[in-house]
């Protein structure tokens, strides 16, 4: 992999480099060898009588492109072979392979094509409409956590208060329908979502397989990362251990190295891309290490090369049941991104605006995710549900449940898993998890309790009079699904959220660098300033 990456950074395949490594490439995989030999024979047969020098050039070039494609995925290989056989001449075959390897299967090449277009679009928007107003800022907004202020550019997703999240324009049900799955009618593969977030295009299965392969190739974590985690007491919160591991991963940042060497601004996105993909590939290893360390025997489970990103994460946590793997694919897909204003996404973006590398940005984002009003709510929900069961039993009546909700509110606490800063309807991330539960675990007693809460809690929160959204959010449901398949340790749940969020935050960071987005620096004011301003406004 490192050979291929070095080659790619150079702006294309280099036959000389290929020649240097040709022998090891032949030895690297039996499929590669078989196909490369068949290509040689086909070349010789078809190029019979042709110009020898040109033939050698073609051969070297074809070898080099083939190697790139093959090392990205065995599944792509069979497709390549059958398509190659259909080509009428070797020249055409080589040209086709070039198109497939650089434009179709390679995410980096796709971005390289898309970025200049998007840069132009933004430049035009700024020069033609820079002074158009998007709304008025009120004192309420300043004092209310900037609610409703439009002040961020976030390309990968958009949140509608009524409809919920759309990833590059696609709703969750649309993603479930359109994104490639591991099995027929299965849940979307998170790699497909990553491709969609980065390019705005729905990937083919071959593209997703190539990306899975690439992520597996990058999934290597140095030992000092585990040692950094081991330096913490086992009792440290899983998010603290996870965040520490991510900070230790930062030592390998390509962006930091490139910046120190003086990389020009126009190229920032390339090492950001390298870091982003490596970070996404590596966080499941760090997260599963934390899980094994705290809750199991500390044994590290290695990456399984036959599995995709979500399936692999599930098996590294020690869960090999196909339903749990499907749940993990769905879980990672729906938690990945929720536009730019939420605490974790905004933190990642803000820190990135100072040109901090993706590891630093993501570690900062995780610290925001670890707050109980944000990502930690998934832990709080399951602990709260378990406290309901401890006190009232699993077959609690709706009346008893109402009393318990009021007891929570009267104790000055929030009902975790309900309400949202933007959404004003049931979160579609909740709905799709409910559908998963109805399909796979309809009889689960805790799922039935969650269903009862759906009926009981919204009227009570509405009755309070101040809650803007009484409906359940994503966290109201995730815990009971994980609990059903044996992942019962609620304090760990936010780590799962964090792994998923790496996909959204890192995707946007690549675009931040590609578009040259500036240092984020909103204006703040004091209470004195606000009072004076308002008094003057009143007087005029
Ligand atoms: N239970 C009790 N009170 C609630 C409530 C809930 N679930 N949701 C909102 N409220 C209260 C607020 O605390 C606030 O009270 P205050 O005026 O006394 O401070 C009032 O209702 C108005 O709040 P809001 O405008 O409706 O919500 P917000 O934008 O300020 O906060 C959120 C949004 C999510 C923090 C809030 O709904 C909440 O605390 N929910 C419970 C925690 C939770 O589930 N968080 C996860 C959210 C999703 C995520 O990020 N993962």
From TrEMBL:
SUPFAM superfamilies: Citrate synthase (SSF48256). It comes from the Eukaryota. Keywords: Transferase. GO terms for biological process: carbohydrate metabolic process; citrate metabolic process; tricarboxylic acid cycle. PANTHER family: CITRATE SYNTHASE (PTHR11739), CITRATE SYNTHASE, MITOCHONDRIAL (PTHR11739:SF8). NCBIfam families: cit_synth_euk, PRK09569.1. Belongs to the citrate synthase family. This is Citrate synthase. It comes from Durio zibethinus (Durian). The lineage of its organism: Eukaryota, Viridiplantae, Streptophyta, Embryophyta, Tracheophyta. The gene is LOC111286249.
């Amino acid at each position: 992999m490192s050979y291929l990456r070095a080659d790619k950074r150079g702006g294309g395949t280099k036959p000389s480099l290929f020649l240097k490594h040709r022998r090891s490439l032949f030895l690297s995989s039996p499929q590669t060898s078989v196909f490369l030999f068949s290509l040689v024979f086909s070349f010789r047969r078809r190029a019979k009588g042709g110009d020898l020098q040109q033939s050698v050039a073609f051969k070297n070039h074809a070898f080099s492109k083939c190697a790139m494609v093959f090392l990205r995925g065995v599944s792509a290989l069979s497709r390549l072979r059958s398509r190659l056989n259909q080509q009428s001449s070797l020249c055409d075959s080589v040209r086709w392979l070039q198109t497939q390897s650089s434009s179709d299967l390679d995410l980096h090449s796709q971005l390289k094509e898309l970025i200049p277009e998007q840069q132009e679009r933004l430049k035009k928007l700024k020069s033609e409409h820079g002074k158009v107003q998007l709304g008025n800022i009120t004192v309420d907004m300043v004092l209310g956590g900037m609610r409703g202020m439009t002040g961020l550019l976030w390309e990968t997703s958009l949140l509608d208060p009524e409809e919920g999240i759309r990833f590059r324009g696609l709703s969750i049900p649309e993603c479930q329908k359109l994104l490639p799955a591991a099995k027929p009618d299965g849940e979307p593969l998170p790699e497909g979502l990553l491709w969609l977030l980065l390019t705005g295009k729905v990937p083919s299965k071959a593209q997703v397989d190539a990306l899975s392969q690439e992520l597996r190739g990058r999934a290597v974590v140095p030992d000092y990362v585990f040692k950094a985690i081991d330096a913490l007491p086992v009792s440290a919160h899983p998010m603290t251990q996870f965040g520490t591991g991510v900070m230790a991963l930062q030592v390998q940042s390509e962006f930091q190295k490139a910046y120190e060497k003086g990389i020009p601004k126009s190229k920032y996105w390339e090492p950001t891309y390298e870091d982003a993909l490596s970070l996404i590939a590596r966080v499941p290893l760090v997260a599963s290490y934390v899980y094994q360390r705290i809750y199991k025997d500390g044994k590290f489970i290695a990456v399984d090369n036959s599995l995709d990103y979500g399936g692999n994460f599930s098996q590294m946590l020690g869960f090999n049941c196909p339903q749990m793997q499907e749940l993990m694919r769905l879980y990672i897909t729906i938690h990945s991104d929720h536009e730019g204003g939420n605490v974790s996404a905004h933190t990642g973006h803000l820190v990135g605006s100072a040109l901090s590398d993706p590891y630093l940005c993501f570690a900062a984002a995780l610290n925001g995710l670890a707050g109980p009003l944000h990502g930690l709510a998934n832990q709080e929900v399951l602990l709260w549900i378990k406290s309901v069961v401890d006190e009232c039993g699993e077959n609690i009546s709706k009346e008893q449940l109402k009393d318990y909700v009021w007891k929570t509110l009267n104790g000055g606490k929030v009902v975790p898993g309900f309400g949202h800063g933007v959404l004003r309807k049931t979160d579609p991330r909740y709905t799709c998890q409910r559908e998963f539960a109805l399909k796979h675990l309809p009889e689960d007693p805790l799922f039935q309790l969650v269903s009862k809460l759906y009926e009981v809690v919204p009227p009570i929160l509405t009755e309070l009079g101040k809650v803007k959204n009484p409906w359940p959010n994503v966290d109201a449901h995730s815990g009971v699904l994980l609990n059903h398949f044996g992942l019962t340790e609620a304090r760990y749940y936010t780590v799962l959220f964090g792994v998923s969020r790496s996909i959204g935050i890192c995707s946007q960071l690549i675009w931040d660098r590609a578009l040259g987005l500036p240092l984020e620096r909103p204006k703040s004011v004091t209470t004195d300033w606000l009072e004076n301003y308002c008094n003057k406004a009143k007087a005029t």
